[in-house]
């Protein structure tokens, strides 16, 4: 038997000798399955090859004590803060870097000048006015002083959104330093150009609602990865922050309702007796929210405009940031949620303009998010999570976030508004897990918080209907905007000039929503559902979350942990989905039907002739004949293999026991199916075969089918039934950007083909 194959190999070798002049030059390893050694950093004592923190892992700590006052009449914030910075690194630090995020809104900020672009087809009135009609907003921090612990001035230099503090002598490893900053700034109207924090003015009653964050100078991260993370805040890339403890006193008008990051220390001083009774009831209410400040009470306050002040005192431990919301317009409700063996308070604050939608769904969404995210990661460690209503907002901070979703003035709303509000609450509350606890560097890797959070948002949304079936229309799934493979097809199949790899800085991409939110969420969903399976994925994902909670992970820590905890080699997946802009496109290129014969086929006869051989020189062989070839005849069709090949029948009779022969398969049809891959991404090949009797079978070939040929692969199908249809990716699991080549036979009128087109359009 080996002789004929050796002879054939010799013929092919001879052909190769004749074509030496046509050989292409050599190349480096471009196989899609090569390991990511060139892309990944070298493991070290700080971060291991398994993706876990190393034995020498460290992180800095920054503690804050602040006294803040909000002037509601002038919309200004004044603050004095003392920062105690702990140098836990092995390095001596010559100076300190502090973030001044509000400086992105300074009148002379270069941030608005960073983008190019021509005249738009259309613009919003606010956007047009902000760009062309108004004077620059006088934002930015007004630093009054920087002083050391003894009250002496500290030399400092402001560079855009960063301030370098020049300490008298290096801060040695293991030491700490305290210094104070006094500052103030004008609070922006966040409805003008969607500032991340600020106020909204309600002209009808003359009140303001404040959602305040990034409101104080904050320490930069110093880490083993890049030293100081002092990349400027341009507006898109968010934040990198160390953990610490906060003691914050916030003074506002006496008739305001206020909540913030941390535990309220003087509740009995700032709550009325009735509010305290309701609060105590809320602590025992696990099935529905308890109203702490009613709509009627909030509407009465809207008319008061108290000139008195009230100070709210908070303490937060092991958080990376601090935010607060305050207004006399706020309705306030709370509900206890059981997370593990602890009670967590789900909280909502909203003006009457948010009702009836917010009273019905906000706290439900908060509670559901805490349960869902905790199930898939770790038990939520803080004592509360707050959702605050703010026009056109979606922004997150530890324990508190602001969210959009406003009904019409008459209180009516459509499904788009309802689901949009629920989704943004799930997303922003979910950010407590990524990155407020699993503390990735948002300034550099936006996808590590937005993508992971959007993926978890998708999971939580799909579970929302189970938790609150009355909220979802009958027989319908939650209408998630992102996460399902079909939702990313248009982006991945779009103009490559406007697409960047996921592994890009948020400032450097055109379509940030698709790049940092949608595509990584879809990638993880496909990884969970199609590549790894839920059991392997969920264990690995939970391992990552627990390894890196209250720490600073990098992308490689995530990639390595997912492989380490699952025993699945995923370098091909990370490379394709995260490091390139390749897209998925797989299809059926060709289908050939074969039958078994006892006589040599044309190709074998040609080789025999070339070698001067006769049939007697060959060992017993089974030959394959292509339908329609010169060796084919109609008598072959429908015969079982043992009828068609005497040599095969003899082999079976000699080598199979009578019992084994009873169970032996006897295929009548053989198909050579050629699958091609015009797209660059390698993915598992999921194929649905339809047989002549109407039955179907789906086979998932592992992604490794592409490992030796990145363009196409062939599969031989032995079947007792005739195949009448083949469809690649029948359930649209892989984000295939072109399904017109996914079916065989391919014709426009085919119902399966039309179904594909309609799904993609949807």
Structure, described:
The protein is α+β, with helices and mostly antiparallel strands. It contains 19 helices and 31 strands. The model is unreliable at 1-17 (pLDDT under 50). A hairpin with a 2-residue loop joins strand 22 (394-397) and strand 23 (400-403). It is 27% helix and 25% strand. The chain is elongated. The longest helix has 22 residues, at 446-467.
The structure class reads alpha+beta
Q: Termini separation (Å)?
A: 55 Å
Q: Which shape, going by the Cα principal axes?
A: elongated
Largest sheet: 7 strands, mixed
Number of beta-strand segments? 31
Unreliable residue runs: 1-17
Report the radius of gyration as a whole number of Å.
Answer: 33 Å
> Helical segment tally?
19
Strand content: 15-25%
Q: Regarding quaternary structure, how should these chains be classified? A: single chain
Overall average residue pLDDT: 92
Strand order of the largest sheet: 4-7-2-1-13-17-15
The helix content, as a percent range, equals 25-40%
Which key terms come to mind for this protein?
single chain; 762 residues; alpha+beta; seven-stranded mixed sheet; six-stranded mixed sheet; 27% helix; elongated; disordered N terminus
């Amino acid at each position: 038997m080996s002789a004929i194959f050796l002879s054939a190999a010799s013929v092919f070798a001879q052909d190769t000798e004749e074509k030496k002049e046509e050989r292409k030059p050599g190349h480096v390893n471009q196989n899609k399955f090569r390991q990511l050694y060139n892309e990944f950093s070298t493991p070290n004592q700080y971060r291991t090859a398994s993706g876990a923190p190393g034995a020498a892992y460290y992180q800095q700590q920054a503690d804050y004590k602040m006294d803040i006052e909000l002037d509601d009449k002038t919309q200004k914030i004044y603050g004095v803060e003392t920062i105690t910075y702990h140098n836990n690194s092995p390095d001596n630090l010559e100076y300190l870097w502090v973030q001044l995020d509000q400086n992105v809104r300074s009148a002379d900020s270069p941030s608005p000048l960073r983008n190019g672009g021509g005249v738009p087809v259309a613009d919003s009135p606010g956007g047009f006015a902000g760009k062309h009609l108004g004077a620059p907003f006088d934002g930015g921090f007004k630093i009054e002083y920087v002083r050391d612990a003894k009250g002496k001035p500290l030399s400092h230099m402001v560079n855009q959104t960063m301030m370098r503090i020049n300490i008298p002598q290096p801060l040695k490893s293991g030491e700490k330093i305290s210094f104070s900053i006094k500052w103030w700034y004008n609070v922006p109207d966040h409805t003008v150009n969607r500032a991340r924090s600020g106020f909204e003015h309600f002209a009808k009653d003359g009140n303001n609602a404040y959602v305040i964050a990034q409101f104080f100078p904050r320490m930069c991260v110093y880490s083993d990865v890049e030293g100081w993370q002092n990349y400027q805040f341009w507006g898109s890339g968010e934040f990198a922050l160390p953990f610490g403890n906060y003691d914050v006193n916030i003074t506002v008008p006496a008739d305001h309702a206020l909540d913030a990051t941390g535990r309220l220390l003087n509740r009995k001083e700032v709550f009325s007796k009735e509010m305290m009774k309701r609060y105590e009831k809320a602590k025992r209410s696990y099935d529905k929210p308890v109203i702490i400040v009613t709509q009627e009470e909030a509407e009465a306050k809207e008319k008061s405009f108290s000139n008195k002040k009230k100070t709210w005192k908070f303490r937060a431990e092991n958080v990376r940031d601090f935010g607060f919301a305050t207004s006399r317009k706020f309705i306030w409700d709370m509900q206890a949620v059981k997370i593990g063996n602890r009670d967590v308070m789900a909280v909502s604050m909203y003006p009457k303009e948010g009702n009836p939608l917010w009273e019905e769904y906000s706290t439900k969404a908060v509670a559901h998010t805490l349960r869902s995210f905790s199930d898939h990661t770790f038990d939520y460690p803080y004592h509360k999570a707050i959702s605050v209503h703010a026009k056109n907002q979606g922004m997150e901070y530890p324990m508190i976030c602001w969210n959009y979703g406003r009904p019409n003035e008459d209180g009516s709303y459509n499904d788009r508004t309802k689901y949009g509000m629920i989704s943004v609450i799930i997303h922003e509350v979910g950010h407590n897990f990524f990155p407020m606890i699993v503390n990735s560097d948002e300034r550099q890797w936006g996808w590590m918080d937005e993508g992971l959070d959007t993926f978890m948002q998708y999971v939580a949304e799909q579970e929302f209907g189970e938790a609150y079936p009355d909220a979802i229309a009958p027989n319908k799934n939650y209408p998630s905007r992102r996460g399902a493979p079909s939702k990313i097809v248009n982006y991945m199949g779009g103009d490559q000039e406007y697409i960047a790899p996921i592994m890009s800085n948020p400032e450097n991409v055109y379509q940030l929503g698709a790049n940092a939110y949608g595509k990584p969420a879809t990638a993880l969903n496909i990884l969970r559902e199609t590549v790894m399976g839920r059991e392997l994925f969920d264990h690995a994902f939970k391992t990552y979350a627990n390894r890196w909670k209250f720490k600073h992970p990098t992308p490689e820590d995530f990639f390595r942990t997912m492989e380490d905890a699952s025993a699945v080699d995923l370098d091909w997946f990370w490379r394709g989905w995260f490091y390139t802009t390749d897209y998925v496109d797989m299809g059926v290129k060709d289908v050939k039907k074969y039958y078994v014969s006892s006589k040599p086929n044309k190709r074998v006869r040609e080789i025999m002739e070339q070698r001067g051989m006769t049939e007697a020189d060959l060992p017993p062989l089974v030959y394959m004949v292509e339908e329609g070839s010169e060796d084919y005849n109609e008598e072959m069709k429908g015969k079982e293999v043992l009828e068609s090949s005497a040599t095969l029948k003899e082999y079976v009779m000699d080598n199979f026991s009578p019992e084994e022969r009873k169970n032996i398969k006897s295929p009548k049809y053989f198909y050579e199916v050629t699958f091609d891959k015009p797209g660059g991404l390698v993915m598992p090949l999921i194929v649905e075969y339809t047989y002549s009797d109407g039955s179907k079978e789906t086979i998932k070939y592992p992604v490794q089918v592409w490992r030796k040929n990145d363009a196409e692969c062939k599969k031989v199908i032995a079947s007792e039934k005739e195949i009448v249809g083949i469809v690649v990716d029948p359930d649209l699991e892989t984000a295939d950007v072109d399904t017109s080549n996914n079916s065989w036979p391919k014709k426009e009128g085919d119902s399966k083909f039309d179904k594909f087109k309609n799904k993609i359009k949807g």
